[in-house]
From TrEMBL, chain A:
Annotated coiled-coil segments of the chain: none
Top-level lineage group: Bacteria
Lineage, opening ranks: Bacteria, Bacillati, Actinomycetota, Actinomycetes, Kitasatosporales
Name this protein carries in UniProt: FHA domain-containing protein
Region called Disordered, residue ranges: 1-20
PROSITE patterns found in the cross-reference section: FHA_DOMAIN
Entry-linked InterPro entries: FHA_dom, SMAD_FHA_dom_sf
Domain FHA: 40-86
Alphabetically ordered keywords of this record: Phosphoprotein
From TrEMBL, chain B:
Composition-biased stretches (Low complexity): 162-174
Alphabetic keyword roster: ATP-binding, Kinase, Nucleotide-binding, Serine/threonine-protein kinase, Transferase
PANTHER family registered for this protein in UniProt: MITOGEN-ACTIVATED PROTEIN KINASE KINASE KINASE 20-RELATED, SERINE_THREONINE-PROTEIN KINASE NEKL-3
Record-given protein name: non-specific serine/threonine protein kinase
EC number: 2.7.11.1
Residue ranges, compositional bias (Pro residues): 50-60
Region (Disordered) residue spans: 38-79, 158-184
Protein kinase domain span: 18-349
GO molecular function list: ATP binding; protein serine/threonine kinase activity
Pfam families documented for this protein: Pkinase
CDD domains: STKc_PknB_like
Amino acid sequence: MSGVLIHLPPGEGTGPATGREAGAMAPGPVTLRLGAGGVARFGRGSASTPVELRLADPAVSRLAGEIRVTDDHWQLSNLSSGQTYLVENPEGAGEYFRVPPRRAGAPIPFEFARVVLPTRGSAVSFQVFAPDHVYMDPDGMDGWGTRTLTAFSLDETATYFLVLVALCEPRLRDESAVAVATTPQIVDRLRSHPECGRLTARAVSSHIDYLAEEKLRISAPATADPRQGARRNGKREAVVGLALRFGLVREEHLALLPPRAPAPHRVEVAGR
Amino acid sequence: MSGGPVEVVPPGYRVGDWEVTEPIGAGGWGTVYAARYVGPPRAAGDGDGPPKPGPEPAPEPGREPGRSAEPGGAGPVPDVADLAEVALKFLPTAGLAPRQARGLVETARRETELGRRARHPRLIRLLDSLTLSEPANPVLDGAVVLVMERARHSLRERLHIPSAQGPAAPAPSGERTSDPPAEAEGARLLTEICEGLAHLHALGWVHGDLKPDNVLIMADGSVRLSDFGLAVELNGTHGYIPPLGTPDYLPPERWRAPLGERGVQVRPSTDIWALGIMIHQVFTGGVSPFPGATPMARGAAAQEYAEGRAPLRMDLRVPPFWRDLAADCLTPAQEERAVHTAAGLLARIRAAREREQQRPAVTARAPVPAHAPGAAWWQGRAALLGVTVTTVVCGAAAAAAVALLGGEDRSPRSGAGATAGMGTAAGGERTARIEVFNAEEPCRQAGNRDKLCSLGLAIDPVKPYTLDNVVTTRVWHGDTLVADCQVPQGVPIADEAGERSTQWFRVRLPAGEGRGTAWLPAVRAKDRPALPECAGRPSPA
């Protein structure tokens, strides 16, 4: 249980500084990490109603809501008197639900969620990640009470898992013992997948970061190399190495990837 | 590979000199079967004596002795008693991708390595290990089989914790004892677990997956630690194991542990945390000290506790000595927990036992009825096994009871100047005066007869202390009651300050109550007069 991660994209938290959060004054992204049982309030904030996550839009209540970490998920309380909030699953096929005014502790089942608050103009939104969701081991689905489980479980239907499989593909197919796909290669590889047609290079990088930092919590060997590219490659290699070593990605997962367009392994892929 | 373990080994299947009789269960890695010895008969003395130490090589995982493996030819020589019935753990490698097969071979290697090197009466004995060569049966081909001592059941089964497999898991027929372990049995089980753990740690190994499933109880009741699939030899202060674990027994640091090239870090303190959970479970019928309906909820509760946002609330059924021990095992910070080593805990357990054994000689007692419970935890307290529910009467219940009572005149308050001294009642029995003590400070003001400050008296001290087990008479701080005897082992009661006791005093009630006596929990008084134990099972007078 490492809790949840709240991410406020740049621009959403800007505006006059009335909250106590000094960090909110900067028009950059805000990231809050809540541990087990942790609570964060969000809203416009004021001197008398401090909030941990400041949303500067005037249409947002001073104290608009509360996020509370519960077990492996989180709860959303809508503290406004008249606004309905929307919680979307950015990875779902348009999955969302409404949290009506004064609703206390609505449980949020999504590993990735975007909380959308209505405003006069465009909506204000922030993201909440719950990386602790547990998935049972494939051979242990008859129960999990006292079973020994893989401590790092991955959602095999999530986009990050597709990215991971694509990263591991060259090694799984024994094409290369060392090769790790680059970001453009992954974008290219997943383009024909029905859910990844619009996957950007930036999104792929965020998925890899999420895997490395939140899901696997990789203790990367400290690389002193200041060059960004080298550092990123180190992270990718670590992700691939660990995923393969501990069986988080296996040969059978290659079937999740779309058929390969270029010729060389056409026959092999078609046979799956 | 879904839908649970596949039963691939039919009864009658032969492995080396053993023949499979029935499946026992499925663990995290393999399926375990019971088997009996069908090899050539041996003389009684054959293989007896101390187990051969040292360099007998356990078979390398790659070795293929097939089904014709010589009995004891490669592994340690089993003694005759072991041969009658054994447990065979099958670690099938078929149907797995090569990388997973490597992982299983690694698991088997850890088990054999530890089994070979860490002989101890508290560790399950590995008698042999072989790799099957069954080209005609791809499911079994290449499977690693570990031949081990046969246990009666696991601690999980003893505590009646529902198995992960649910009803599908075959219960060992007729072997289950219906009662949870009594204090004496629980103490013995935990002492033996601690002995095994101390030995393991002294050798520089960490178990890595200590839990009631992996604590086996033999036919003679003794304990063996088993399942060393995650056991690892330490390199300095820590070792690395694959990222596997059982959520309920993971120490708080593991929930945030990074995954490194070699896996996750484990230390002896990993096992100590799991021991703390098990101490609590042994005395509570399997209940974790952390609240929650699911392992994830309990894991979150453990995290909250470790982060200092929630106190550790242990069940009052856990005896005070063991509660202190469990609290030390559950020290949140890994560095501070490391102070409590298995050897240190074992020394404390033994010292406590010695103290307890000396105590009866010091305390002069009135003759104790034969069936009355002994005071010391290892002596057994058979008379009180049924006592499991502990209820501290809450303020609301007390207030309700007082409202019914509607007055203070009936309280058995004695005249001023009464002291808690010994006296002799008209009948010639010994009596003592006991002054009621209220742990809540505002209730101790002179003359405070607030209903919320009233305290209850029980009808029966071995029944749960609930609203239907209290007399109508209420008492307040400073009241003096006349007690004529006591029971040392009633329902445990804790006061608002956390003081806990299982002792109860039988006190006289004023006329008009409808009964002559009632029971005051010892935590409601500071006096501890040396009263005789009440004769007979205390019953509602």
